[in-house]
Specification:
605 residues; mainly alpha; six-stranded mixed beta sheet; two-stranded antiparallel ribbon; 27 helices; 61% helix; elongated
Length: 605
Amino acid sequence: MTAPRLAVLVSPRTLPADALAGFLGAVLALPQGIAFATLAGMPPEYGIYTAIVPCIVAALFGSSRYVVSGPTNANSLALLAALAPLAVPGTPGFIAAALAVTAMVGLIQLALGLCRLGWVTDFVAPPVLAGFMSGAALLIGLYALPDALGIAPGAAHGVAATLSAVAGGFMEANPSAVIVAACTLVVTIVAGRLSRRLPYMLIGVLAGYGASELLVRYLGLPEMARAGTIPSVLPPLSVPVVPLKQLEQLAPIAAALSIVALGQSVSIAKALARRSGEYVDVDREFVGQGLSNIAGAFFSSYVSCGSLNRSLPNYLAGARTPMAAVLSALFLVVLAFVSRPLLERLPLPAIAALLLYIAAGLIDLKRFAWLWRVGRADFAVAVATLAGMLALPFQHAILIGSGLALAAYLHRTAHPAVRALVPDERVPERTLTAVEDLPGEVVECPQLKLLRIEGSLYFGAASHVARRLQQLRARSDQKHLLVMVKSMNFIDLAGVELWTHELAQRRAAGGDLNFHRPRAAVLAVWERTGFVDELGADHIFGSKREAIAAIYPRLDATICARCTARIFRECRACADGQAPGAAADQSGDATPPRSALSNDASRAL
């Protein structure tokens, strides 16, 4: 399936553009890979490995032309946060656990793609992702501080331990490390502001490297921590094996990482698709990401996914096909081989400065302000997820955030609006309008209540709607009820039982129940359960005017005779001595047939 796809996409016309974009991607991936691997608690070379094999496999088997896979800040941080309680970062045990988790993540992603379950990522709500990313950014910056200051990170791992180490060692910071970190950070910021097309991170790292050599070799300042020996530029073969009892601990971590990684990849693919106009097959993207992580686990790579830091520059650089990502990985091997002596002397404070720069860019205060304006519930979900990232294992924070988002959604759907309607005298069409939207004191018909249900009626919402209907029966003498149910997209058995009860209550009181424009799916449920037979097909109407004209003759004539509200045309026709229901014919407007369920003109009364 892949070879024919590349054969169609790749041509002599696209290859030069892909080669240029691929070279830029390799230049960006070199410093980022080292920084992200350090963040993940892995040796620096593992970041380079993760940007090679997974990148190629994801490009060959994925759906997007522009997504470039590899190590990301979020995955790196999540991996460190999840595995640090199980093994010391950087040790063989930690690396083995990371590779095993990567293989498990790949298997889960592949299974989701093959089973066409791409929709599962939709349940990671945007507020959850906002809280996760901002929380991850804070942790990235916090864990980078010890290296930036040139102090020991502390024996224990975690927010409290790192804060304690920074506070305790601040006065003993290595001046060389601080200067190198500051130089790297300033140059990166300036280069990035000059042009985003520049490899500004690489420029910043080179500035930090130059500063470290100047300070140590020529000015005699203290030495600082460096990347150290890189065993191999090419990713060596690896076997992701851990003790059987540890698999139980790694399984929930892998499940959470799978969803987070897929969420990132799919979001990036969709964002680029909106720009480029291409179609993205989410399930195929799942398959590509799954295969890339499975292959990566056997080539010394940790969890990878679509990288925004590489995908967007790849698209902006003019990439035309997935070959750009493949060439990016190949160019990276060449660059790493050529610059290997420099990489081994790379100062860790320079890498820490890059992480601080990345962390600052991930803290999206505007997003939180927007969430506050849009909905306080979404804002609370984002804040709770962020707090969970700082205090709990990341997979628990994701679960808590997703649970709160789902709870907020269920609360909204369990309380559908039940609005009373009256004809609006301010417009000639006399459109039915919610009472609360009209100014001043509103007069309703004393016998016929008009309601609109805005939402589906399922078991979670049935109690709320039942309470509102009971309150309406108790507070007024309006025995007849006409319900506008066009917005009721779904109904279950609890909803059918609610309307059955309401029908019985209305008829026992001498009134009746009527409906306007039920959805086809709702009507089908009513027919299967026998509710239509009990209600009567003549109590279901295709237009509001038809409904009023049919219900009006059933009202108590003595009450109509002394009524002063007269909000319907039929009421005014009766006051003029015409027969009930004749007003519509007198005005020249024919009553539309019941089959005309889409006639919007019937809103006028």
